[in-house]
Amino acid sequence: MPHDGSAHATGQDAAVRLTCGSENGSSGAGSLHSGRSDPGSLDAGSSDAGRIGAAEGWRALRLMALGGVAVLGALWAWIILAPLAFMDPEYAAWRAKQVMLARCDLGDLLILGDSRAAVGIIPADLPVRASNLAVGGGKPVEAWAALERALRCPALPKRVVLSFDAVHFMRADLFWERAVRFGWLDWSDLRSLRADAVDLGDATLAGGGRFAALGGWWQDALHVIRAPPLYVGSVVQGGLALRWIGNRRALAAALASRGQYFFGTAAGSDAVAVDGHLAVFEPAPVLDRAFDRLISTLTARGVAVAFVSLPINEATARAVRPEVRAAFAAYLARYERRYPGFRVLGAPMPAWPGRWFGDAFSHLNPEGAARFTAALAACLGDQACEDGGVQPLASRAALAAGSREGWPGQARP
After folding, report:
1. Would residue 344 count as lying in a domain?
2. Which pTM was predicted?
3. What span, in angstroms and rounded, lies between the C-alpha atoms of 141 and 153?
4. I need a surface site. Which of 56, 153, 174, 202 has the fewest CB within 10 A?
5. Residue 407 vs residue 328, higher pLDDT
6. What span, in angstroms and rounded, lies between the C-alpha atoms of 205 and 182?
7. What are 62-94's pLDDT values in tens digits?
8. 61 located within any domain
9. Residue 66 within any structural domain of the chain
């Protein structure tokens, strides 16, 4: 019957579909199963994906860390190996003086002091071979560090000129920013100064510097190893290597001038320098000890030592308190009495016309430096040494013969 045939056909079709489904891998059951999804299978997949993601994340972090270490290492190596490429322009002059010390190329006369002496005493204009190792912000501690290195040389200079303004017996001017950061002082110097500071109860040199909050051993160590944070500013400002050519030229110039270099070179200055703002003159104990160590060490070795004050402009001289000037003079006079081999040449803080100064810090300009060097040469030779007066240049023959009017420990004609 048609109806029965149709039903039978339908049943056969269903059976065929079921059989086909079974023969084809139970696709119907598979469809049904995928519709329900197996929780265990999903959890395993998610766990694997999570582990892979975490591993990739850690790998990326490790690569970033290694890259950072590589960059830091390269920067650190650059700081140590190529400071002339990026350091402040004044660094080249300091480096020249270190080279002269390393070569023991000091001559017969050694000049130690601050920036005014670095500018105002021109070795080439002196009648004897001289070296100017005075530095910007120089104090007795920087001078002592230089002298310690000079003492390792086969022979010491016959004479030493010391010159510091009053401020550099009192304050830590540029100590961390220049003397330590430029490598003038080494680990031994810093530890010795720490010991002196503790012994004297004087914290004059303790403050300042990038790592001042750490203090003590850590502060010294980070400076000695030239930690990158101390120099990254100069690296950026110097364009990594843009100062290389200029600093190389400055180094060559400072070596040729035997350590002398200029700051301001204007045709005059009537600005009142820091000397005119001092309320009192009170030497810091740690700086006084270094000054005493300088004089005692040199005189014990038979080296004639003289102290000379570089001039200040008339405006500054008018602003200097009389009690400050008197205290400074009395301080130097005490050392003159204590050590027969030490002599003060001229009065402290001599006043010169403003036209001979090149900036607001009472640094002499080229004309002023030439005049002062001529005056100093007269003091080293046969002429009397007047207070700040410019005397005729002593003859080279007279100096070579050993006549040194005004110098300690020498027979006078």
Report:
1. yes
2. 0.80
3. 19
4. 56
5. 328
6. 16
7. 888 888 889 889 999 999 999 999 999 999 999
8. no
9. no
